Amino acid sequence: MENNRPDKLDFDIIRQLREDGRRPAKTIAQALGVTEATVTSRIHALSDASVMRVMAQRNVEHLRTRLFCFIRVWIRGRSAEVVADDIAAFAGAGSVMMMMGSPEIHVTALVEDNDDLLALLQDHIGQVSGVDRLDVSMTLKAYKYRYDVVSLSPALSLGEPQGDPLDDDIIRQLQIDGRISNREIGRVLGISASTIRERVNRMLTTRQIRIGAVCDYRSMGFEIAAIAYLQVAAAQFKAALDYLVAQNEIGQVSAISGPSNIFVILSGRNLDHLSEIVRNKLQTVPGVIKTSVSLVAKPKKHRADLISLVEPPG
């Protein structure tokens, strides 16, 4: 690895860990034709440089708070960064991003139901000083969710317990270090390693969690990210979704409520590359009527521990 950019061996190791974050270093070494010590040192180096993190991620389909919605926030009379910090303090705000231009803030909220969403909007975000206007779109269905490339920055946030207390305690240990041994988890929690093993295997088998490598998008060669709201003709809606899901540069595709009926997150190597993606990919979507693209200026909060297991990463 040079200048926090992975080399070929690093990428080979990352691919192994994407498939199984708890795959033994010895097994990876045998598959790649290198020593176990080399694999171990590479994993530590990638983690220390915040290039990659092996962690457990929870499938929102198994949680109480599993309703995704997107909130655009317009600011008046106060610093957008200060407002974003205030919004990020709310548990329901899963992702908070400062945007270039207006609206100044974009929030991905994860709530239990409509009443929970209304409380978040009226009693929390709407009461933050400087918030002028909100626009909300509900996620009807996620068609693509690239959970292995995120922002591994200080904005990374882990969530609150939501289920069985012992499962939650185990998941918390695996979120901190996805490669921690069952024996060590058992020692920390005062539980036998066999119980930990059974619990982890059950959660993996039932798709309650995924344990794998999560990489910082900048270390993967993507220097700029953006969100886009698309309005697509009803007759072409399915064709548009299929087209967008197939694009490698697009990490998230969701059908949403409102005048815009598709939401996407995309990334590029630089501004020129992102502009090319918008021209050649977004503006050529079947049936597209209108496209609104906003650049991400700074992520303030990101719940990388919550994902939708709708599609394996490509």
UniProtKB/TrEMBL annotation:
Domain HTH asnC-type: 164-223
InterPro entries: AsnC-type_HTH_dom, Dimeric_a/b-barrel, Tscrpt_reg_AsnC-like, Tscrpt_reg_AsnC/Lrp_C, WH-like_DNA-bd_sf, WH_DNA-bd_sf
Any single GO BP term: response to amino acid
Claim: Membrane is one of the keywords in the record: no
PANTHER family: LEUCINE-RESPONSIVE REGULATORY PROTEIN, TRANSCRIPTIONAL REGULATOR AZLB
Keywords tagged on the record: DNA-binding, Transcription, Transcription regulation
UniProt protein name: HTH asnC-type domain-containing protein
Gene Ontology cellular-component terms listed: cytosol
SMART domains noted in UniProt: HTH_ASNC
GO MF terms, alphabetically ordered: sequence-specific DNA binding
Xref: Pfam families: AsnC_trans_reg, HTH_AsnC-type
SUPFAM superfamilies: Dimeric alpha+beta barrel, Winged helix' DNA-binding domain
